[in-house]
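Annotated sample (chain length 172).
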Amino acid sequence: MAIQFKAKLWAGMEGKNWTFVTMPQNASEKLPKRARIAIKGTINGFAFKTSAFPDGEGSHQFMVNGTMRAGAKAAIGDTATFIIQPASDTVEFEIPSDLSAALKKATKASAQMGENHAESQSRMGSMDHLGEERRDAHSPDDKDHRTPHQRRQAPLRLKPERRDHFPAAASP
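Output written by the structure step:
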């Protein structure tokens, strides 16, 4: 599904050489979604791949980098011809055989580590109750470590059975 349009290149920031193009709305509507989308195509016949982003005004825009401008023989203010289509975000590559072998060994080691980790977790499960006792052991000497602003915004909420452990405080 090729989408063809003409658009003017514009500068994003003064003096930064950032160049963008805003797609005409009828061309933008042909894209499959109103979100960031990978695209590929040509600018004045020069091939490129980039991402188009919604512009908040019903269209998409994308950056035209220096390589694209040079290849297209286009500059800020020029109108260029674009032919684009959605592209895959998937990066395809071939894993070298030595890396593949190392990853297979690592997978075996990882599986063994997983077994050891599961065994450790089951042993640790029997000690879970220790943390609960510690959390419930409040005393009147416990300090509220929040800032004064945090204390004003959200007064300390205590379990009803623990209120007697703290000095009287203003009710919220």
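Annotation: Residues 11 and 19 are 5 Å apart (CA to CA).
Annotation: Confidence is low (pLDDT under 50) at residues 128-139.
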